[in-house]
Amino acid sequence: MEETRYLTFALGKGRLAKKTLELLEEIGITCEEMKDKDSRKLVFVNEERKLRFFLAKGPDVPTYVEYGAADIGVVGKDTVLEENRRVYEVLDLGFGKCRMCVCGPESSRELLQHHERIRVASKYPNIAKDYFYNKKHQTVDIIRLNGSVELGPMVGLSDVIVDIVETGSTLKENGLTILEEICPLSARMIVNQVSMQMQTDRIKRLINEIRQNWELEKVRKEYKDK
Ligand code: PRP
User: Fold this and answer.
1) 85 and 191: one domain?
2) If you average pLDDT over residues 125-139, what whole number do you get?
3) Which strands sit side by side in the sheet containing 51-56, from one edge to the other?
4) pLDDT tens across 170-180, in order?
5) pLDDT at site 85
6) In ligand 1, which atom is closest to the CA atom of 148?
7) Can you give the CATH number for the domain in which 35 is found?
8) How far is the CA of 170 from the centre of ligand 1 (A)?
9) What is the DSSP letter of 134?
């Protein structure tokens, strides 16, 4: 009975989607049509397992999941925190690892220590607000940007930025540095709250398959390293 309807996945476009498909392939779930780069199709189906996939802009993934348009979503923890939607976060997928940090020129370090009223530019205004207001108890002005946030302190728009740091090369190449670390990030699986009740077995099975695959990978790696 449970298997009769499609289980729908919303995947954040880009690197995370590619990694997610690799992960699903490792547990035997493939979606060949999704690999066709020339295709303009938006929704893809795996008939055998009754699964449906679509690619969406990262910040929209939690929205699709909250409203039940997707049962499951895969997005970065940054998006989960920023969007703060009513969804269950069920699994840390372990890839897409990076950090949310306060960054800026070395000269801005002092402004953070003395709790001055500074300007903070970010693509993540909610994360920035929570960090400065609730954790640091520092009143700041938050300026929302949509990308290339590193420009903020470079052109005099802001004193610091709150942004993702992965390799650190964007900061380095632009004369900026990590001033404070907010939290570690990685890809997460999120689930619609009703789907979790109605499709419990299918969703739990999927989570277990991913976990078992990790265990297997670990054993394989240990064996190879010996
Ligand atoms: C992200 C982030 C940083 C950069 C960090 O930007 O906002 O700019 O990657 O990566 P690094 O530490 O490896 O250099 P993204 O490439 O998503 O583009 P954006 O600046 O337009 O948001």
Assistant:
1) yes
2) 97
3) 43-46, 51-56, 7-12, 72-76, 187-191, 88-92
4) 999 999 999 99
5) 98
6) 20
7) 3.40.190.10
8) 7
9) I
Q: Which pTM was predicted?
A: 0.91
CA of 164 to the centre of ligand 1 (A): 6
**Helix (H, G, I), strand (E, B), or coil: what is residue 23?**
helix
State the greatest distance between any 2 C-alpha atoms of the chain, in Å, as a whole number.
63
Same structural domain for residues 72 and 28?
Answer: yes
How many domains, in total, are found in the chain?
A: 2
List the one residue out of 201, 133, 193, 199 whose CA is nearest residue 162: 133
**Do residues 141 and 120 make contact, with C-beta atoms less than 8 angstroms apart?**
yes
> For all residues of the chain together, what is the average pLDDT?
93
CA of 169, closest atom in ligand 1:
14
Residue closest by Cα to atom 22 of ligand 1: 147
Q: Is 121 exposed, middle or buried (0-12, 13-18, 19+ CB in 10 A)?
A: buried
**Residues 81 and 125 occupy one common structural domain:** no
Closest approach atom of ligand 1 to CA 170 = 14
- Structural domain of 122: 98-183
For residue 101, how far is its CA from the centre of ligand 1 (angstroms)? 12
Q: Judge if the beta carbon of residue 29 lies within 6 A of ligand 1.
A: no
Angle formed at CA 90 by CA 36 and CA 88, multiple of 5 degrees: 100
Same domain, 171 and 209: no
